[in-house]
Specification:
Length: about 230
Amino acid sequence: MTSENDPGFNSKTVYKYLSRYPATSILIPALKVGALTGTTGLLTGGVAAVLRSSPTPALFTVASGIQWFALGGTFSATRSTLLWQWDLPSPTPEERVVASSSAGGITGATVAAVFRGHRNVIPGALVFTLFGYVGQTVFNKLDARYSEQVAVDIQKEKREKKGFWNRVADMEWSPMKRLSDEEYGNMLKERLLRVEADIALVDEELEKLRLEERVTNARDENIAVAKKNGK
């Protein structure tokens, strides 16, 4: 028996836990899931009552709806509580499988104890643990396939938005390459440096020509002066 002074479990610990429990974000979705599964249970129970020729079809239908409501609501609330307790706001696929399997076992045992008796607790826990595991595994695979398809569609949309030549440049075998803004700017700078170097070379050649022209003119003037003085 646990004493009130036990630090592991007392009224303060329970109050602290319940004060942190996000009841609204867990219980309301659980009630919605329960309502959905309960409605499914009513429809299934009604069809089963007719097929089995139940002497009390209405009672059979209501009982089926209540059980399905309890299964769906309990599973949703238990699974969300486990993820919250484990502090997993963004669980991995493996963590989801563990949470769903555990929630399935707890749900199966609880509902079996309430509606079917204690003898069915262990079978119920085992069966719904398996349901939780298989269901979450299948969902993870479908979700991964859907995510891959969405990624492919996004890439396809991006390619369609590009121009024809951009798509050709992105191909591995293409001899062309699509430049980024930075690469294009660097290429322009290199070309500008080459042009400036060519201009500098042209200026040097012009300066040489001017120098030769001045030398030639000076020599011609000296010759002309010498001829004039010789006369």
